[in-house]
């Protein structure tokens, strides 16, 4: 991405915690916005970003960089953490719903559980990762392929399938509005 990320990354690779802190300061806001698009709870979005940076530190010897920046890797890791947090939240809510005390308290509904965000969440994880990196974050197909460790052609085919599924979902939503 730029020379600053590359310099910070070199510091992180030799175990310099202040380099990780500088990367956090630089990318935290963007990663948080990304996590907020994928999760309904703000606290979960913060957790997803924290998990991504923890994993970045833990796996610093094997992280794939794109143009010298760990940002695409971080975006992908935030997506995975968000899915895991959402899944565990669903399990927790299902458990709570089965308890006798659950009848008296209602769970709040998410703001966009029937819209575009819900359609994106229904995509398989592989297709969702490609959509997030290429469409939402604007990375070129080559950068997404590098980040995900797959061929560029696979990125293109997953993106085409995802767009077709999203198009169908959006068309069905549009019909329900009329």
Automatic annotation (TrEMBL):
The keyword Transcription applies. Keywords: DNA-binding, Sigma factor, Transcription, Transcription regulation. PANTHER family: RNA POLYMERASE ECF-TYPE SIGMA FACTO, RNA POLYMERASE SIGMA FACTOR HI_1459-RELATED. This is Sigma-70 family RNA polymerase sigma factor. InterPro entries: RNA_pol_sigma-70-like (IPR039425), RNA_pol_sigma-70_dom (IPR014284), RNA_pol_sigma70_r2 (IPR007627), RNA_pol_sigma70_r4_t2 (IPR013249), RNA_pol_sigma_r2 (IPR013325), RNA_pol_sigma_r3/r4-like (IPR013324), WH-like_DNA-bd_sf (IPR036388). The keyword Transcription applies. Residues 23-91 form the RNA polymerase sigma-70 region domain. Pfam families: Sigma70_r2, Sigma70_r4_2. NCBIfam families: sigma70-ECF. Belongs to the sigma-70 factor family. ECF subfamily. Residues 116-166 form the RNA polymerase sigma factor 70 region 4 type domain. CDD domains: Sigma70_r4.
């Amino acid at each position: 991405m730029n020379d600053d990320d590359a310099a910070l990354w070199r510091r992180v690779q030799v175990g310099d915690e202040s380099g990780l802190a500088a990367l956090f300061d630089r990318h935290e806001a963007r990663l948080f916005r990304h996590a907020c698009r994928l999760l309904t709870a703000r606290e979960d979005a913060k957790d997803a970003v924290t998990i991504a940076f923890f994993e970045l530190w833990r796996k610093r010897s094997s992280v794939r960089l794109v143009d010298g920046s760990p940002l695409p890797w971080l975006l992908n890791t935030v997506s995975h953490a968000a899915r895991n947090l959402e899944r565990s939240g669903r399990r927790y809510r299902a458990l709570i719903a089965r308890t006798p005390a659950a009848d008296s308290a209602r769970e709040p509904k998410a703001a966009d559980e029937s819209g575009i965000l819900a359609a994106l969440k229904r995509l398989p994880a592989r297709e969702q990762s490609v959509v997030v990196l290429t469409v939402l974050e604007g990375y070129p197909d080559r950068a997404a392929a590098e980040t995900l460790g797959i061929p560029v052609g696979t990125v293109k085919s997953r993106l085409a399938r995802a767009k077709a599924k999203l198009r169908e979902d959006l068309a069905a939503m549009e019909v329900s509005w009329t």
